[in-house]
Amino acid sequence: MFGATLPKPITTSQAMPEAPCHLHHDDDEDDGVNSASIMIMNNTRALEYIEEVTRNADEVQEKVLAEILSRSAHTEYLQRHGLDGFTDRSTFKKRIPVVTYEDLKPDIDRIANGDTSPILCSKPISEFLTSSGTSGGERKLMPSIEEELERRSLLYSLLMPVMDQYVPGLDKGKGMYFLFTKSEARTPGGLLARPVLTSYYKSKHFKHRKHDPYANYTSPNETILCHDSFQSMYSQLLCGLCQNEQVLRVGAVFASGFIRALKFLEHHFVSLCNDIRSGTLDNKISDPFVREAVMKVLKPNPTLADFVEGECLKGSWKGIIPRIWPNTKYVDVIVTGTMSQYIPVLDYYSNGLSIVCTMYASSECYFGLNLNPLCDPSEVSYTLIPTMAYFEFFPLHEINGHSTDSVSHEEKERLVDLADVKLGQEYELVVTTYAGLYRYRVGDILRVAGFRNNAPQFNFVCRKNVVLSIDSDKTDEVELQNAVNSGSDHLAEFGASLTEYTSYADTSTIPGHYVLYWEISTNNNNVETPIPSSVFSDCCFAIEQSLNSVYRQGRVSDSIGPLEIKVVENGTFDKLMDFALTQGASINQYKTPRCVKLRVSLLALPFLGHRCTPPSAPTIGFFFSPFPFLAIAVHLHQPQPSPPLAFHLHPSDLSHQTRYRNDPFPALHLQSITIPIPVFVWGFYVVQSRSGSETIECGVCQHLFPISKDCQKLEPSIGEQLTSLLYLEPDSELMVYLLLSTFCFCE
Ligand code: AMP
Question: With a 6 A CB cut-off, is 196 part of the ligand 1 pocket?
Fold first, then answer.
């Protein structure tokens, strides 16, 4: 997915339209003219390829399905469902069920546990891609095969030829993209489990890419491949600043990541400018590969340092992108779907430069690209490339203005093919991939916005069921409900209970955070016992504990801010209902919306009787999660002799740090705490050995047992493995460590 754009020769079956085989010129023979003509030829081939596959969309899809099914005819899955070697659409649709991740989980678990027989795919599963979608609170594991990397590269190779039609001359400068890799885990069977982009950036397709004027980035590979998020971000920004005049486009995968980089600049520009001024690299960057790579770019440049510092010190950061990178032509980030909430802040930082959403992809497979990249973000549509996978579409029917998937069994059997979707209709995307997913419901809702030749172009409408999202987290209504239930349990001892709630993803703060609006009733014989604010803090914490692992990891890595509860006046939700009724809602069907999407929202109106935003609604109290930046450092000197029944931590065992040193640390957690077993643990617990940053003592790790939800039941191991189980980047100073799970192990 996303960001990087690399032409790459592709080999596909003879039966398919031939993928554009890119020419590369030899660096030594770069005579400018040669290079330009090769680029033009490559661009032409790529555009011809798009024309061909979109013109023959249906035929290509038929061939793709036949190819997948004939290759995998002997897999256990297809045999189990009685496909009997058939490769035609009609038998496939009759015999193969439409499934979700939960249906496939037993098969996926077998592969993860080391069964190498052809269960889902005839080709060996080379790795699992960890999706940001969750199942039972855990990340989904998507099987992948070696050749998928080529398919991903193919999609990347189409991006710049498309872009070049609208913004020529991008080969004359560089792209400043903030791209990151994460630490990897291994399944018990030994397969790698990592995010799709980590897999791509670590592949030879990215690392050993041939010289290409479009794949010329300010970030050296080493800075992208560094797992330490601080070092990676710092060094990428530094290199981007050093080459500021050459930068023609800036971006990241999703808008949230790019905004994070600008926020980082705001916090660290003094140190970055010092490095530029002196031509030396801050000691915080300790990775020798990163240091070496950055030192090739970094030269003493006091003029540039003064310029950047001057811009950063000006009161306003409006237009900071074109101010510091004056030749920037556009911002390349995804702002469709939940990321649209970041458009205003991007407009502010970029002074209204075009925001370009280039592609639509996932861990399951890469889907398509935006053939009209300079369109307004609200009009972005993606053309699914028919060679990527076999696509089907589950029509959603409009009932009272709400899309629903409650369609009849027969309709489910007759999912619509790519070439048969109808303009304006909404569908859920279903894919059959080369890597062993058959009729798999991706969970994305798309709307047909138009056609390119015979291939439909889709607006991304939303993720099915997701009510809250800040970064890559996706919280659905059920998860939210369960989390709210466990949070509101804390009110009971005060004779209080939660009567109504709704939620809001507040991105006006950076990082954004979840806000819950709570209406509370007290019924303890009219004696009003005020509820201490610490209780609400406990509620916030309990809610965060209940949310899925992607949310919690976002909190640990600080891409999501602390959850907030706003207690609203009694009667607020009645007013909300009254308002909805005046707008035509049926009293029989009215349900409190569990999420308000817009800042100027339904909820805001009845609060004050005039238009205002939820954050300024008349709340009678607001409370944050009590551990906003808390890290508990546990100092263990001795290996524990045996797993204790309860783990008692005394203040002398604890030290506290905040990730943002300027933020005051809340003093309330200095008492000793006893952690019961079994315990539901999450990543706020940070271990740091007294001696330095190597963090984990083997004695502790020996007790690790694969019990944690976060750990996805991966094999016990030590040190680095432990962190990677959590899919967390080792932080610069602290290493988040699922310490307590080590003590959950009982015979
Ligand atoms: P993951 O499986 O973590 O790689 O996430 C893939 C999901 O991210 C997709 O199924 C979409 O829900 C979302 N996504 C990917 N690309 C886009 C896009 N261009 N616009 C909106 N959402 C996207």
Answer: yes
| Average pLDDT of the residues in 604-624 | 43
- Over range 679-686, report the average pLDDT: 28
Q: Is the pLDDT of residue 699 over 80?
A: no
| 3-state SS class at 740 | helix
pLDDT exceeds 80 at position 406: no
Quote the tokens at residue 40.
């033009």
With the C-alpha atoms ordered 277, 283, 289, 290, is the resulting torsion angle positive or negative? negative
HSE on the CB side for 649, CA within 13 Å? Answer: 22
In angstroms, the CA 722 to CA 724 distance is: 5
Token couple for 473: 């987290």
Q: Does 153 contact ligand 1 (Cβ within 6 A)?
A: no
Q: Is the CB of 341 under 6 A from ligand 1?
A: no
Describe the strand order of the beta sheet including 247-254 as a list of residue ranges.
Answer: 174-178, 247-254, 330-334, 354-356
Predicted TM-score (pTM) of the model is: 0.76
356-366 residue pLDDT tens: 999 999 999 99
Protein residue whose Cα sits closest to atom 5 of ligand 1: 362
CA of 230 to the centre of ligand 1 (A): 25
Is residue 289 very low, low, confident or very high in pLDDT (cuts 50, 70, 90)? very high
385 DSSP 8-state letter: P
Atom 9 in ligand 1: which residue has the minimum CA distance? 362
Torsion of CA 453, 455, 459, 462, to 10 degrees: 180
The DSSP symbol for 168 reads T
Q: How far, in Å, from the CA of 174 to the mean position of ligand 1?
A: 26
Q: Let me know: does 342 contact 263? Beta carbons within 8 Å.
A: no
Query: Average pLDDT, whole number, for the chain?
Result: 76
Residue 655 pLDDT: 34
The two three-digit tokens of residue 692, written as one number = 């330095």
In which residue are the tokens 């959950």 written? Answer: 744
Ligand 1 centroid–CA 459 distance in Å is: 12
Kindly state if the Cβ of 463 falls inside 6 Å of ligand 1. yes
- Cα(640)–Cα(658) distance, rounded to whole angstroms? 27
Which amino acid does the sequence have at 538? D
Distance CA 597, CA 600 (A): 9
pLDDT of residue 212: 77
Report helix, strand or coil for 78: helix
361 CB-near residues (< 8 Å, 6+ apart): 1, 2, 152, 155, 196, 367
Q: Are residues 633 and 659 in contact, defined by beta-carbon separation less than 8 angstroms?
A: no
Judged against a pLDDT cut of 60, whether residue 379 lies above it is answered with yes
DSSP string for residues in 45-76: HHHHHHHHHHHTHHHHHHHHHHHHHHHTTTSH
In 569-638, DSSP assigns E strands to 619-624, 630-634
Compute the distance from residue 253 Cα to the ligand 1 centre, in Å.
10
Query: What token pair was written down for 61?
Result: 């899809």
SS3 629: coil
pLDDT band at 409 (very low <50, low <70, confident <90, very high): low
pLDDT value for 530 = 78
Burial of 385 (0-12, 13-18, 19+ CB in 10 A): buried
Nearest CA to ligand 1 atom 22: 337
Cα dist. 713→6, 15, 440, 463 in Å?
36, 42, 24, 27
In the predicted structure, residue 7 carries a pLDDT above the cut 60: no
Place of tokens 């460590």: 737
For residues 222 and 181, the answer to whether their CB atoms sit within 8 Å is no
Q: What angle do CA 216, 217, 220 make, to 5 degrees?
A: 115
733 pLDDT above the threshold of 50? no
Q: What is the pLDDT of residue 556?
A: 65
Length of the chain: 747
Q: Which of 156, 343, 360, when mutated, tests ligand 1's pocket best, judged by the most ligand atoms within 8 Å of its CB?
A: 360
Count the Cβ atoms, other than its own, within 10 Å of residue 646. Answer: 10
Residue corresponding to tokens 């479009």 = 214
**Amino acid residing at 154:** L
- Helix (H) / strand (E) containing 430: strand 426-432
